[in-house]
Amino acid sequence: TQQVLRDANIRVFSNAPLDDAFTLVDPDISRGHTIVDMGEENYTLGKPHPMISGALRIDRIKREAKDPEIAILFIDFILGFNASMDPVGELLDSIIYAQKLVESREGHLTVVASMCGTDHDPQDMSMQSQLLEQQGVYVFNSNARAALFCANLIQLGKELINDGKAAK
Fold first, then answer.
1. What would the pLDDT profile of 65-119 be if each residue is shown by its tens digit?
2. Sheet harboring 72-78: ordered strands across?
3. Among candidates 113, 118, 119, which has minimal Cα distance to 95?
4. Close Cβ partners of 102 (under 8 Å, ≥ 6 residues apart)
5. C-alpha angle with apex 151: 150 to 153, nearest 5 degrees?
6. Which residues touch 33 (CB under 8 Å, ≥6 apart)?
7. What is the SS3 assignment for 97?
8. In this predicted structure, what is the pLDDT of residue 158?
9. Residue 168's pLDDT is what?
10. Which burial class, exposed, middle or buried, applies to 106 when counting CB atoms under 10 A from its CB (0-12, 13-18, 19+)?
């Protein structure tokens, strides 16, 4: 995701950055465009990995929704035998909460998901994807495609802002 955004000339801060100059000072506080690897040790030490339990991601989604600048929420889902049996079900309420909170400020939150798995996984990729799509989430079966979609949204947003400034 970071590489795709970087290739689109979008600066991305992270707790696991490609370039140390874009390291988050505090991984719990987003800055600009932020990608958080919740599988990093500071999140998993003594706790289940986010692939197994959505608790950490639920808290983060709710916190990010309170940021007045949030416009895109990108979540990845990994299916398989060593993953949560219902990863979308675990996060769905927090996604809905985030959408409604942003909407209550007269904003719009675009939620994008990448889904890694198959219909033969115990979680059934089609069913998991359908749950997200019913909530208006854009679902991609490739992280790179989902990241490219996000890059295009960011670029479009910049163009709209620039057009608005030019019109004034």
1. 999 999 999 999 999 999 999 999 999 999 999 999 999 999 999 999 999 999 9
2. 72-78, 110-116, 138-140
3. 113
4. 65, 70, 108, 109
5. 65
6. 5, 10, 11, 12, 13, 154
7. helix
8. 81
9. 45
10. exposed
DSSP strand pairing (33-35 vs 72-78): unpaired
Q: For the chain, how big is the Rg over CA atoms in Å?
A: 16
Residue 164: predicted pLDDT: 63
- Residues across the chain: 168
Could you give the C-alpha distances from 85 to 15, 39, 52, 111, 168, in angstroms and in order?
Answer: 27, 18, 8, 21, 52
Q: CA 74 to CA 94: how far, in whole Å?
A: 13
In the predicted structure, residue 31 carries a pLDDT above the cut 70: yes
Tokens at residue 167, please? 């019109």
Our CA dihedral for 60, 86, 145, 157, rounded to 10 degrees, sits at -40
CA 159 to CA 166: how far, in whole Å?
Answer: 10
User: Distance between CA 128 and CA 144 in Å, rounded?
Assistant: 19
